[in-house]
Design brief:
Layout lengths: L1 H36 L2 H14 L2 H27 L3 H30 L3 H33 L5 H19 L1
Helix pairs in contact: 1-4, 1-5, 3-4
């Protein structure tokens, strides 16, 4: 009984987790492209050289700094939200989210080798990868079902309903 009640919560958490992973996967190449276009490539080489001299614990601080620096921007977005500047608030929060994920992906790319030297971080990294695979396995049947519904494939109730709706729309359109 409890498992059935918690299933929607797990699916929601899996979807949120996969959205974060999708953003990470898709923003990392964009950030890499930006790095190629502006003088960040030199900065990346400079940062990599500095990180190579740091201990893994100090590298963790370098990894966490962008999160701390973007926190005021997110707070500003929440302030806008509380003062009912809806469009500005949503724009600021979404911008902060994209910027945060992009910068974190860039910094993680530079710091990953050093961070993975710490045993606890390596275990945490493996756990995140495992959770990502489990979340994908949990959400994949739902995504597949939604795609079937949208395409109208199969013999299920949903495809029959869609065909009925299509016939109804066609008859209404012809009646005009």
């Amino acid at each position: 009984m409890m498992h059935r009640l918690l299933q929607p919560l797990w699916v929601l958490l899996a979807i949120i987790f996969l959205i974060e992973a999708w953003l990470w996967d898709h923003l990392e190449p964009i950030v890499a492209w930006v790095v190629e276009r502006i003088p960040l490539r030199e900065f990346k080489h400079w940062l990599t050289a500095r990180i190579d001299r740091l201990s893994p614990a100090m590298t963790l601080i370098v990894f966490i700094v962008p999160v701390i620096l973007l926190f005021p921007l997110k707070l500003f977005g929440l302030w806008l939200l509380t003062h009912e500047y809806w469009l500005s608030a949503i724009t600021t929060i979404v911008f902060a989210k994209f910027l945060g994920v992009g910068v974190t992906a860039f910094i993680f790319d530079v710091t990953r080798p050093k961070l993975l030297e710490m045993e606890w971080f390596e275990k945490l990294y493996e756990l995140v990868l495992t959770l990502r695979a489990k979340a994908a396995a949990l959400v994949d049947p739902i995504k597949r079902r939604i795609k079937e519904i949208l395409r109208g494939d199969g013999d299920g109730w949903s495809s029959r309903t869609l065909r009925l709706i299509q016939r109804f729309r066609k008859s209404v359109h012809e009646a005009r």
